[in-house]
Amino acid sequence: MIETIMDRKSVRSYDGKGLTAEERDKMLEYSKNIRTPFGIEAEYRILDAAEYGLSSPVLTGVDTYIAGKTEIKPLADVSFGYGFEKLLLYAVSLGLGTVWIAGTMDRDAFEKAMELKDNEFMPCMSPLGHPAARRSMRESLMRKGVGADSRKPYNELFFEGTYGTPISDAKYQELKDCLEAVRWAPSAVNKQPWRLVIDGDKIHFFEHRDKGYKLANGMDLQKVDLGIAVCHFDLALDEKSSGHEIVIDEPGLELPEYTEYICTFRL
Ligand SMILES: Cc1cc2nc3c(=O)[nH]c(=O)nc-3n(C[C@H](O)[C@H](O)[C@H](O)COP(=O)(O)O)c2cc1C
């Protein structure tokens, strides 16, 4: 899993050949069994572009998408991030390309295809298909624009004891892979809003918010990013069979503005 997480990159250019029936079945089967840490589950559907008139201006060579919808309620955004990322990592492990898309799509058409109800929201969708041999020019420019091949350094993301105190390099070597899995998570506009505070055997996750990611329905796209980071950390820790749990255990730390507690891993 750590290898899949570290090798994953967004794919916006596809070979035009679509999914095999077996790949489609595997994705659907896997999607039915996803469980999130907060008990809030989403419904996922595979959608054909031609049937519903679906499109995205940033994608080429794709005719199949996967999207999810969930009830609007506290932690639904974080939960969606966790569950959909698990699903997309499974797709990557099957050799498929994926990319989280929240903005650059015909949202009305996708929401109609998902039969969205008033109390539900569809944070994102992803194309599903086989990557083209070369990235489109538009995709290469987009990656450059958001610095998709780099991430913030360790000392800006990972703290020890108090919020803002960078972890010392020599410590936490046993957690290094798991922290790297968080650092390389995908996020909207590559903003990486996750911040972690390590405190003994507890690791607290926080959201450091940017302006403009709150949605009209009260949900928060950067909390979806946090769910992705939690998913990566959870899967990477699983690989070390640490027997950890994810809980809400607000540590009451002094926090800067626009910063919010999300959840805690107990090792
Ligand atoms: C919640 C979320 C929403 C995103 N929305 C879009 C989008 O609307 N259009 C797009 O081209 N990429 C979108 N992305 C992809 C990010 O731009 C991409 O993950 C980031 O630049 C890092 O690149 P990488 O995934 O190749 O590591 C989104 C990613 C996330 C996590």
Question: What would you note in describing this structure?
Answer:
The structure is a single chain. The chain is of the alpha+beta class and 267 residues long. It has 2 domains: 2-127, NADH Oxidase, CATH 3.40.109; 148-266, putative nitroreductase (tm1586), domain 2 (NADH Oxidase, 3-Layer(aba) Sandwich), CATH 3.40.109. Helix content is 33%, strand content 17%. The protein has helices at 2-7, 21-32, 49-52, 76-93, 107-113, 137-146, 154-157, 176-183, 221-239, and strands spanning 43-48, 64-71, 120-121, 125-127, 158-160, 194-199, 202-208, 245-247, 259-266. α8 (176-183) links the parallel β5 and β6 (194-199). The radius of gyration is 18 Å and the shape is globular. The mean pLDDT is 96. The site of flavin mononucleotide has 22 residues, from α6 and α9.
List keywords for this structure.
267 residues, NADH Oxidase, four-stranded antiparallel sheet, binds flavin mononucleotide
What can be said about this structure in brief?
It is built from nine helices and nine strands.
Cα-atom radius of gyration? 18 Å
Percent of residues in beta strands: 15-25%
Based on the structure given, which CATH architecture of the largest domain is correct? Answer: 3-Layer(aba) Sandwich
CATH class of the largest domain: Alpha Beta
Order of strands across the main sheet: 5-6-7-9-8
Percent helix range: 25-40%
* Terminal CA distance: 19 Å
Look at the structure and name the CATH superfamily of the largest domain.
Answer: NADH Oxidase
CATH topology of the largest domain: NADH Oxidase
Low-confidence stretches: none
- What would the average pLDDT be, to the nearest integer? 96
What's the number of domains?
2
- Structural class of the helices, strands and pairings? alpha+beta
- Got a strand count? 9
Q: Largest sheet, if any? A: 5 strands, mixed
The best one-word shape is globular
What string, H for helix and E for strand, traces the elements in order? HHEHEHHEEHHEHEEHEE
> How many helices in DSSP terms?
9
